[in-house]
Amino acid sequence: MTDQSPIVRADGRTPADLRPVTIERGWSAHAEGSALISFGGTKVLCTASFTNGVPRWMNGSGKGWVTAEYAMLPRSTNTRNDREAVKGRIGGRTHEISRLIGRSLRAVVDTKALGENTVVIDCDVLQADGGTRTAAITGAYVALADAIEWARGKKFIGQRSVPLIDTVSAVSVGIIDGTPMLDLMYTEDVRAETDMNVVATGRGLFVEVQGTAEGAPFDRRELDGLLDLALAGNAELAEIQRSVLAAAAGAAE
Amino acid sequence: MTDQSPIVRADGRTPADLRPVTIERGWSAHAEGSALISFGGTKVLCTASFTNGVPRWMNGSGKGWVTAEYAMLPRSTNTRNDREAVKGRIGGRTHEISRLIGRSLRAVVDTKALGENTVVIDCDVLQADGGTRTAAITGAYVALADAIEWARGKKFIGQRSVPLIDTVSAVSVGIIDGTPMLDLMYTEDVRAETDMNVVATGRGLFVEVQGTAEGAPFDRRELDGLLDLALAGNAELAEIQRSVLAAAAGAAE
Amino acid sequence: MTDQSPIVRADGRTPADLRPVTIERGWSAHAEGSALISFGGTKVLCTASFTNGVPRWMNGSGKGWVTAEYAMLPRSTNTRNDREAVKGRIGGRTHEISRLIGRSLRAVVDTKALGENTVVIDCDVLQADGGTRTAAITGAYVALADAIEWARGKKFIGQRSVPLIDTVSAVSVGIIDGTPMLDLMYTEDVRAETDMNVVATGRGLFVEVQGTAEGAPFDRRELDGLLDLALAGNAELAEIQRSVLAAAAGAAE
Amino acid sequence: MTDQSPIVRADGRTPADLRPVTIERGWSAHAEGSALISFGGTKVLCTASFTNGVPRWMNGSGKGWVTAEYAMLPRSTNTRNDREAVKGRIGGRTHEISRLIGRSLRAVVDTKALGENTVVIDCDVLQADGGTRTAAITGAYVALADAIEWARGKKFIGQRSVPLIDTVSAVSVGIIDGTPMLDLMYTEDVRAETDMNVVATGRGLFVEVQGTAEGAPFDRRELDGLLDLALAGNAELAEIQRSVLAAAAGAAE
Amino acid sequence: MTDQSPIVRADGRTPADLRPVTIERGWSAHAEGSALISFGGTKVLCTASFTNGVPRWMNGSGKGWVTAEYAMLPRSTNTRNDREAVKGRIGGRTHEISRLIGRSLRAVVDTKALGENTVVIDCDVLQADGGTRTAAITGAYVALADAIEWARGKKFIGQRSVPLIDTVSAVSVGIIDGTPMLDLMYTEDVRAETDMNVVATGRGLFVEVQGTAEGAPFDRRELDGLLDLALAGNAELAEIQRSVLAAAAGAAE
Amino acid sequence: MTDQSPIVRADGRTPADLRPVTIERGWSAHAEGSALISFGGTKVLCTASFTNGVPRWMNGSGKGWVTAEYAMLPRSTNTRNDREAVKGRIGGRTHEISRLIGRSLRAVVDTKALGENTVVIDCDVLQADGGTRTAAITGAYVALADAIEWARGKKFIGQRSVPLIDTVSAVSVGIIDGTPMLDLMYTEDVRAETDMNVVATGRGLFVEVQGTAEGAPFDRRELDGLLDLALAGNAELAEIQRSVLAAAAGAAE
Q1: DSSP class of E16
Q2: Are the C-beta atoms of D200 and D138 separated by less than 8 Å?
């Protein structure tokens, strides 16, 4: 591990650099909250749909519900994938990522403060270049925050309720040729020996840590290096989220 | 029917006006051809995926194949719809529109000139405000044209082959309070007594005429008025397609 | 287009002739209304199932509901098709035709006069020789009319209620070798350059107009010729429906 | 058990009587063999589709394959059932009966003599009044026999090959109020304490015996009484099949 | 048929011998009743899940409901079978056996005495060597009996209620080389000319008789021989069930 | 975090104790390798099915393929779950765990040394009490090792090939009331604030690290404590695997 060396990545980044991140708030005219987020060439449209009431099994609990669905457009990738609707079943990877996004958001939601309301977050990948799930989580938070402000405006949530107890973002890290790198793009992702997605809050706490040895198993020192990089990356993303949300609210009406 | 009266629609249009139409060519970094088209608040991402070879049942025919799939993002509409992938089956409306788009494109394709190649067009509605199928057909043509030019550049299609024998576009027309109107937006669509989608070529020939009495059945004179309006609208759309395609090619590489 | 020439079709008809049409009312011992209709070699069994109550989303509306399902027996065609139940999904064509039949019938139903009752029409093609959807609509109307009379007898519908405000029928037209022809049989259907299905009421108003360029796009004059032929054919079918319904009621009890 | 008493059933039959059985051979213009069979109010359309070749797993075996599919039209019964194609899955009862029909036919087929050809039998219940599976088997045999003669005419089967080594038919029997009865109609079927379907060959051998205690378990003597009745009923059915097949061949061409 | 000759089967049994039968009661720590049953190399885990209430269509009937589901682990057999959950549909054989188990159990249940409670029996084949459905029925009875005793202990069933009016078991019989044999193992099953499953009560009454000619149809004398053997085998199984249930209750708590 | 305090868990363990682990090798008479593993009350049957050849997309690669499927019996848990085969779709959790098991095993497989052969591992949970996925991975390794030895005996794998480059096992860890604990049983699992599954090799390298904040997000120090505990637990499991595999081979033949 030699991250002090002058390694330059294919797109000019150093190992510890994020790709350019942009968040277009209020992209959708219909959704209560929405964000078109890009991590370099990865573009994900995140919409938050707010409805009163909760699934039947939560009725009367006094708590709200936040869930998420992730999908990729068929030609968001380099070669076209068949639609899951056409295949008639959702693949394992899609399920796994949808569940991850939902869990990540719920980790910063005070469901009591949300009241018996439901927010469904849809994350649709319009273009993929690695890190679609981490971009989705990061953008989903912004859409969720706007949907909650919308609901406050409609008085569906009390003026002093604070359903969001922290921000949440996510970033990938991986070891390539022995070097830990932040925010892998697709060509890096396929070469990584180890691949890790780290979801963290704005306060720097872990929500999810998912590391997989794609090539060779990894040792404790390598794991520590990846975690350092991921926490730093998430701190940057949290800052971007805060500044985007500090601007005037987007288009949802 | 009083289309000479000074009727002004909710968005300021006269009965014979299209909504503002924009076509962003080459929106996708991956697809061989792509276009993000908007008819007012309706936004559809059209990508064309070009591959060598044809489905097994066409092997050796010397002919190519063009097909299309249409879908709506769950929150492209005013209230969220469940994903068809989650429901595990594609609804009748989705099937019907996918088939319509495919037939419309094939009407202007010389499959012999295309050779044994396949183009799959994906039309994903990012935001819906009426006329999603007509916007999809109009944008799909641009994506298809670019994919064919890409293939010519790659020598998958001969330099003198002309797979596209005409342009094709589509527009909706309908009768509202007795007045035929062009290019209905959602609030107009739900009020229309009669609703018609007309697909036409750049030369002004009909490819598809689909008229439905939503309220009361309609007579021959009303039908004639709608057809006049639709042919004029399609002529405008054909002109927009031509000018967009005359500009420098988009991003696909 | 030379429809004045002495063109004779394979089965001896002139271009403007319907095939022999027979309607066997009350074919089913169980259904509240039923008709076995044949357009030449095309035979469709139409049953109407009347039940009190409406789907949940219509509860309390004071209105009734009419819907339809279309299907083909596996060996109704020249070569056997796999059952959709075995494939586990309904194809696009089946969906499209089921929706067309339902819309066509609803165009002549006063749902207020029907009251909160539901009629489901099943159209099962026992033998196919072109025009299955148009035979289905034409026969479905007869089954529907009988089911409504049955319900009146049972006092589910008021004695003075008139749920059916007109009759409805359908016929196909197409251009073959430049000549517009009425009521295409299978061997004609596959050769037609343009194929159109026209649903019309007994008063001669249009309910649906669906024209598709199978071969070359068609011009306004050709469209007009097809519409003329279709209205004449539907007028004949309306007359047949009226005379069948004027006879003593069929077998449903 | 008092079957010597003058018991008269609702439709005037004695306990040992079949309902009126009619077989309309060659009902279908398309199928290689077909029969519309009725057992009283039960009407089943049986078509036999003959194709050259066998499923992949039988390739090169020198043997043929016979299989069957059973289904009921939605309104063949007293109240409408949802279509299995709409539900997206085939129910257990449908599977069970399809498998039974296939096994019953294969019991009288010499698959070597059939050669590498496949016959698919479709049995679609147009109207149901009890005994649909037994009518289906009995009619399916006739359709199969005609399909084999068709294939012999086409020289797909040798002139001296005898693929059918016997006839096969089926009938239901049941105990009602202590009396064994033959060929139960629907109102009897629901009252039967024990219900048995017996498939037998023209020579009087058993192919399938399926008895179920619907009410109370049954003893050996009762079982013997039912088997006697069933063999007699099948002997009658075999005679009807023979006389129908001895007549001039039906419509398939 | 020469069952008096000294025929010795591959595992040393005479034609009239059962395989070694073991029943491990209370195998599951969670289920209200459970049994791991083996018929030689066939091992089936049967669990009974008792819940208060009945399916909606039985509400208020005062009667209980007993149903069963059967499945095989993918590698319970000699070569691996794809999971039905992965294929997305349950095969005909699975449906058929699940229904058979449910019917067999209900034949000895007094649903009035059970009250409005539901017992679901799951029979999962861990290892298969012929006779899985008969082992499943035999083991399911033991699981059901224990679940009912558990419910009595919980006062969900009255102290004097007798929901089980008899015991029930099942065994296969078949004719191999002309000899009727009891309880076929897999290698015998594939060779049998006729195969029969007989479900009987402890009092020796028939619940189900399902005989199939796998090879040649069979005559009345052969059927009688098989029934004799099956009743004797079931009498032995009933005795084993009684002695197992007479021992101290198993593990469910 | 006070793991030096004399904390005693409900089943008498200290925070750093595994539950009793037993591995019954060769449980299945049919599978090429098998193991019935228990972690306390959690029992998983793991079978390894070895077949020659690989999926089509790997043909000619010279490499083998190892994959896994996980499922739970419906009553393996405290309350019955519907079968996924009955629901017709596999849930997200099942997909996720199946994929995890497959990846974990492949991390210790040299696919070149395996040759073009496939091993499918089925892990069926017979009884669940927390940690089913970690027990499954640990048992699956034993089944895989035996299947590979079986294949070596059959000469499907060369005598000097070493397809397994390390052992692999897995264990859960979690923080309960601030204390990190090893190998959570069900009642602990539902109380854990943080839940982590760690897959590691016999050499102590990480294969997968999956940590989730169920309650509150966790900090770096807590993560470190959990990783320490998990590596120690996996070292114990590796030792158990080695001693089980050192004994005489199991039942597969």
Answers
A1: T
A2: no
Q: What is the mean pLDDT of residues A3-12?
A: 79
- Length of chain D in terms of residues written: 253
Q: Which residue from B45, B89, B120 is facing A126, i.e. has the nearest CB?
A: B45
Q: Does A95 touch chain F (CB under 8 A)?
A: yes
- Percent helix / strand / coil, chain C, rounded to 5: 30, 30, 40
Q: Please report residues of B whose CB lies closer than 8 A to that of A79.
A: 49
Share of chain E above pLDDT 70, in %: 96
Average pLDDT over residues C203-213: 96
Chain B: touching chains (3 or more CB pairs < 8 Å): A, C
Average pLDDT on E229-242 reads 98
Subunits close to A (at least 3 CB pairs below 8 A): B, F
**Is D26 a domain residue?**
yes
Residue B16 lies in a domain: no
- Cα of A123 to nearest chain B Cα, Å: 10
Among the listed residues B46, B49, B51, B6, the one whose alpha carbon sits nearest the alpha carbon of residue B31: B49
Whichever domain contains D236, its CATH number is 3.30.230.70
Q: What is the pLDDT of residue D6?
A: 78
Is E92 within 8 Å of D107 when comparing Cβ atoms?
A: no
Contact C80 D120 (CB under 8 A): yes
Q: What is the DSSP string of chain F?
A: --TTS----TTS--TTPPPPEEEEET--SSSSEEEEEEETTEEEEEEEEEEES--GGGTTSS--EEEEEEEE-TTSSSS----HHHHTS--HHHHHHHHHHHHHHHTTB-HHHH-SEEEEEEEEEEE-SS-HHHHHHHHHHHHHHHHHHHHHHTTSS-TT---B-S-EEEEEEEEETTEEEES--HHHHTT-SEEEEEEEETTS-EEEEEEEESSS-B-HHHHHHHHHHHHHHHHHHHHHHHHHHHSPP-S--
Under 8 Å between Cβ of F64 and F119: yes
Which position has the token pair 């078109």? A36
Q: Does B252 have pLDDT greater than 50?
A: no
Asked if the model's pLDDT at residue A180 lies above 70, the reply is: yes
Contact at CB, B212 and C213, closer than 8 angstroms: no
Nearest CB partner across the interface for A127, out of B30, B51, B71: B30
Q: What is the DSSP letter of B218?
A: B
What's residue C249's pLDDT?
Answer: 57
* Structure confidence at residue E22 as a pLDDT band (50, 70, 90): very high
Say which of D92, D209, D218 has its CB closest to residue E211: D209
Quick: pLDDT tens for B118-133.
Answer: 999 999 999 999 999 9
Q: Which domain does E68 fall in, by range?
A: 21-250
- For the stretch F164-188, pLDDT in tens is 999 999 999 999 998 999 999 999 9
Contacts D139 to C, Cβ<8 Å: none
Contacts of E126 in chain F (CB under 8 A): 45, 126
Give E222→chain F minimum CA distance, Å: 34
Residue F84 touches partner E, C-beta closer than 8 Å: yes
What is the Cα gyration radius of chain A?
18
Q: Please indicate, yes or no, whether the overall pTM of this predicted structure exceeds 0.90.
A: no
Q: Is the minimum CB–CB distance between A89 and chain B shorter than 8 Å? A: yes
Whether residue A71 lies inside any domain: the answer is yes
Would you say residue A2 lies in a domain? no
Please count the structural domains in chain F: 1
Least confident of A138-142, C3-7, E164-168: C3-7
Task: Express each pLDDT in C162-190 by its tens digit.
Answer: 999 999 999 999 999 989 999 999 999 99
Question: Is F132 marked as a binding-site residue?
Answer: yes
- Chain F residues close to E87, C-beta within 8 Å: 85
Tell me phi and psi for residue F115, to 5 degrees: 70, -175
Tens digits of residue pLDDT in F18-77: 999 999 999 999 999 999 999 999 999 999 999 999 999 899 999 999 999 999 999 999
